[in-house]
Amino acid sequence: MAEIRSALAGIYAPGRKGAGTGDAEVSIREVTGRDIVQLAAWPDTVDGVASKASKPVGTALPSDMQMASSKGKTTVFRTTREKFLIVCLLKANIGEALRETFTPEEAVITELGHGRTILRVAGPKARDVLARGLAVDLHPDVFTPGAIAQSNIHGVAALCHRSGPDQFDLVVPRNFAVVIYEWLEETAAQFGYVVEEAGS
Amino acid sequence: MAGSHRIPNGGRVTHGASASFTFDGKTYQGLQGDTLASALLANGIHLVGRSFKYHRPRGIYAAGAEEPNALVGLREGARAEPNALATTVELYDGLTAKSQNNWPSLQFDVAEVNNLFQRFFSAGFYYKTFIGPFEKSWMWYEHIIRKAAGMGEATTEPDPDHYEKVYKFCDVLVVGSGPAGLSAALAAGRAGARVLLAEQEPDLGGALLSAPKGSSSDQWLSATLEELEKLQNVELLPRTVAWGAYDHGTYTLMEKVADHKLQPDEHEVRQRSIVVQTGRVVLATGALERPIPFGNNDRPGIMLAGAARTYVNRYGVLPGKQAVVFTNNDSAYQSALDLKEAGIDVTLVDARKDAPAQLVAVCKSASIEVMSGRAVVGANGRMRVRSADVAEFDAKTGASSDVVRQLACDLLCVSGGWNPVVHLSSQRGRKPEFDAKLAAFLPGTPPDNQHHAGAMLGAFSDAGAAQSGFAAGAEAAQLAGAGEPSRALATEGLTSADWEKPLVPIWDIKPGEQVKKRKRFVDFQHDVGVSDVELAHIEGYVSVEHLKRYTTLGMAADQGKTSNITGLALMAELTGRSIPETGTTTFRPPYNPVSFGVITGQETGLHFRPLRRTPLHDWNLKNGAEMINVGAWQRAWYYPQGGEDVDAAYIRETTQVRKTCGMVDVTTLGKIEVQGPDAAEFLNRVYVNGWKLLKPGRARYGVMLRDDGLVFDDGTTSRLSDTHYFMTTTTAEAAAVMTHLGWLLECCWTDLKVHVTSVTDQYAGIAVAGPNSRALLQEVFADIDFANEAFPFMGVRETEYKGMPVRVFRISFSGELAYEVATPSGFGEAIWEALYEAGKGHGLCLYGTEALGALRIEKGHFAGNEIDGRTSLEDLGLGKMASTKKQFVGSVMRQREGIQDENRQRFVGLEPVNPEERLRGGALLHPHNGPHAGHGLGHVSSTTYSPALGRFIGLGLIEGGLERYEGQLVDACYPLKGWVVPCKVVSPHFYDPAGEKQNG
User: Where are the alpha helices (DSSP H) in B809-906?
Assistant: First the structure.
């Protein structure tokens, strides 16, 4: 497979930055090596598609739009009643598998892996960083691990997934990825942060 | 000691932690915990500024956000800040401040001459005087007048500091941290609710901080704060003002994070905007003391009685040595006693005949003389109050006698009662209700999710305020879904004494006949006096809203915190109506001035709005492209060579595309996947032309109309399989088209099984145009047969290049043989580079949007300039494209008479008679040599120099179009510059009208 050039290639710079010197309370990492595929069913097929897709996807699909379902490095978001966004390892070749599983009368499949950038913000102050752009209540009692929100950050449409107790994955449109990355760096500077090597 | 007027070890400031600061260039010493105002007073400085209109000397009048006078300029250079309130500026070591609105100096201000003419400078003076003699006289005078009247000056340098916005969520927001606010937070916190407490000052405690240090309330305060700080569910936000209340429980706050430092620490923001989504809100915003107008009541050394008490007790400052306290209510007695305790000589003048006996007795034992049934009718002294003229006063009639006594003083304290701070309730549209007993407006029934507590409800004892706060906090928490407070409120240590006697309302002290007439100010900051309100009344103003705008009372930066109620009470008196009948003005956000920095937050520079970058952005920059903003995008505008300007570059690029070939980044075009069993039917309904017969592997040009029958957007859509189409839209309308299609599917045609998904970010788009483009693409994508017969115009092919999937569309915007290549964005740069390298053998050039525009104008393709929301299919020459066999969006409305009118402005080409003469976009088309008046026959929509034709050309819209004007001369007029360019109306298809090049 040819190498995919990250939208952040021209700007991404790992290292300890911002206030303080010790362990940073925020980390930022581009999650790479992921494929993103949209599975869109129809009102009369969505329930059947959801259960049938769990096999090729490798995990049960979410039943609502508030919580993601995850297994290993595969995560599925339900973005509307009929649409699922499947994030998994590139090598899983999930688009092909789904196209083989479903006819257009059941569901249609759209490749979106190159159209999104995933940024992982983690650490004790991750929530404080995101609260500066995301108008969503991220209190751990409200936005529990696994929760998702489709909103916007700093004027850019974003899907936010609490992928761990102190860890959030932002799925943002590729062409705006630099905006969000720059914003994250600027916002996290007051806490002290580390940009980790991009990776899976 | 930090200041000559400092009480040794007095107040709550940190003795021993001194802070050096300058005022008007002179260095002084203050203490940590001071405000700039308290530090100035500690150094014996009362005179801090000159008034807005009359340039009268002014001093510090209050001790908080209600201060009308002490506006100063802070800091120098890029961090300079005008109109800062000295009473809220926290002192820090190295602070520099200067007085405003004076020249050459604060002590000697030339413009004080205005004061001599004050009877002429009445309400509306400038508008009345400078309106003539000519129609535009005001415009001529205005800038001079604006310069003369004024506040401080803002810096023009960019602000070096950072500002940010934060979103917060809570069950209960408490505004204010006096006994009511703290108790509300305690109740809600003990009930387990998520609580946010906002306090505009750096220390929590509100009115309790104005009590003498060591008071019994101090223990209550420290115990309460200790408990609140321990509660995990309570967040305390000092230095944070709640300035706006909005729909659905949304509140806006401003936190001054680093204003109390010389400059913010590295990576620290200066100020922060906080948007809070609240469950419930407890307002415990307290009350502000109000002045009483009397002659020269604005002299330095005159201040609110509560403020004087605060300076003594909280800041350990003696604001004078000999004080007169003038009041109409009980609260000032405490001030008088505390001033006396601090060593100031005090005489108390009570306007009430029956002064409160117990308080009078206490005063007597403290050696304070109490004069009841008396009023201060005037103040003497200019740069500082020297004495107070006291007269007999009848509160019932408002009549006063001659001066019966002149009391020497250097501090004159005033208390006219207390105005509850009802702003955040009023902002939600709740009209305040007048309470005759308190002579004050109370907030009325709480609106929305609000609860009100404490002094804003007229509860003026500490214990009473705390109890009402606790009850409000408990109720708020319960309504927000939390439980009951785990413990009840303890009020030990808080005073519960209420007023002994009611106040008598006094809105003005009219001097007796023999007494010198002096200006009596209502609004200090805008220099509005009682006489201005009277003038407005004489001139027929009745509404309090009109009074406000005519006299500017209450319109300054303090928004009339000390003046509004007095002003409207005067108006009521003059018009013979009651105060409730007269009504109040409505408070609007912000409660306190809010900086532009905090409103802007991080949205500065390239982040003013999110910048969209194509996958080729970095490459373009690296290779010298000049970029241009196109909507949210940045696109390559042109690629200069050897110092070319844009004109030279685009002419070269255009020429080379037509001669060999060129390559342009077209990623910005909107791209939408249309998928599903009913996709063909869907397209058939949204486009004007037919789509059902389009075969997979083929593309078609389509036009969409709006519901009203005018053209919405155009683009090429390709059929990739029976159920899968790839739509492109214009760059400008991409989002609008996507929204429109989504709406049609979700709301109108729910029976269609179609999904639309934006893939603008998923694919990079590269257009390769020119006679050599076929050979170039054949070399790079060898798997595809590019022969004309095998891959005809409007064909679509798919292949891979080194493992990277590629789609090639044979479509043309330039009129040349041309292709568009789409590849997943992450491969965009690799494919671009492959074409660029291979292109070297084919004469490939890079071209930007300027050449792209020139090529399409030569070809006569319309674009956004022509699809401007006003043009129909017929106007653009596409009438025949619309299918007559089907219904589509806009198909009915486009038949309207007005849209079918042959007189409408239609799409044409324009050739200047002089080929060297440039046409201007937007120029109006008028009859040749005819009258150049009115809206004309049409306008020029697009222009360029055409290298292919060796002349300037243009596109435009003209009444009746080609049919009426072909071959005729019209004048393109640009009235702003007086330019007139005669030009000939021709077909818009200047270049290759038969399409031999693009189809060949």
Answer: 825-839, 849-859, 897-900
User: What are the pLDDT digits (tens) for B838-853?
Assistant: 999 999 999 999 999 9
Select the residue of B277, B612, B676 nearest A175 (Cβ to Cβ).
B612
Token pair in block for residue A37: 């595929």
Neighbours of B990 (CB within 10 A): 23
Cβ–Cβ < 8 Å for B126, B65: no
Sequence-distant (≥ 6) Cβ neighbours of residue B481 within 8 angstroms:
B171, B193, B279
Interchain contact, A183 vs B602, CB within 8 Å = yes
- Cβ neighbors of B957 (< 8 A, separation 6 or more) are B866, B871, B875, B905, B906, B907, B908, B938, B939, B941
- Bridge partners of B317, per DSSP, are B6
Q: Which residue has the tokens 């008028």?
A: B926
Positive or negative, the CA dihedral B105, B110, B115, B116 is positive
Closest-approach residue (CA) in chain B for A114: B762
Taking the C-alpha atoms of residue A159 and residue A150, their distance in angstroms, rounded to an integer, is 4
A142 vs B contacts (CB less than 8 Å):
169
CA–CA separation, B567 and B524 (whole Å): 12
**A154–chain B Cβ distance below 8 A for any pair:** yes
Nearest to B607 among A110, A137, A179 (CB): A179
Q: Please check whether residue B176 is in contact with residue A146, taking contact to mean a CB–CB distance below 8 angstroms.
A: no
Residues 6+ apart with CB under 8 A from B525: B51, B52, B68, B69, B71, B556, B557, B558, B563
Residue B861 CA neighbour count, 13 Å, CB half? 20
Are B269 and A190 a contacting pair at CB < 8 A?
A: yes
Report A:57-96 residues touching B (Cβ under 8 A). Answer: 82-83
Provide, rounded to the nearest whole percent, the portion of chain B with pLDDT above 70.
99
Q: Determine the residue of chain B that is closest to A137 in CA distance.
A: B169
Q: B762 and A1 in contact by Cβ < 8 A? A: no
CB pairs under 8 A between A and B: 138
The DSSP H or E segment spanning B423 is helix B423-426
d(CA B894, CA B744): 19
Q: 3-class SS at B790?
A: coil
User: What distance in Å separates the CA atoms of residue B124 and residue B776, rounded to the nearest whole number?
Assistant: 76
Q: Which of B602, B618, B757 sits opposite A9 (nearest CB)?
A: B618
Structure token pair of residue B633: 């995008």
**How far apart, in Å, do the first and last CA atoms of chain B sit?**
94
Helix (H) or strand (E) holding A175: none
Read off the tokens for B156.
């023009």
**What tens digit of pLDDT does each residue of B957-983 get?**
999 999 999 999 999 999 999 999 999
Neighbouring-strand partners of residue B375 = B391
Nearest to B651 by CA among B858, B838, B805: B858
Helix (H) or strand (E) holding B406: strand B399-408
Q: How many CA atoms lie within 13 Å of B798's alpha carbon, on the beta-carbon side?
A: 13
Tokens at residue B864, please?
């956004």
Q: Does A17 touch chain B (CB under 8 A)?
A: no
Phi then psi dihedrals of residue B385, to 5 deg: -60, 140
Give CA–CA dist B800/B957, Å, rounded.
Answer: 44
B527 to chain A, any CB pair closer than 8 A? The answer is no
pLDDT one-digit tens code per residue, B492-533: 999 988 888 899 999 999 999 888 899 999 999 999 999 999
The number of angstroms, rounded, from the C-alpha of B509 to the middle of its chain's C-alpha atoms is 41
Rounded (10°) CA dihedral B732, B734, B740, B742: -160
Confidence of residue B330 (pLDDT cuts 50, 70, 90): very high
DSSP B781: S
Strand residues in B126-249 grouped as ranges (E): 162-175, 195-198, 234-237, 240-245
Q: 3-class DSSP state for residue B638?
A: strand
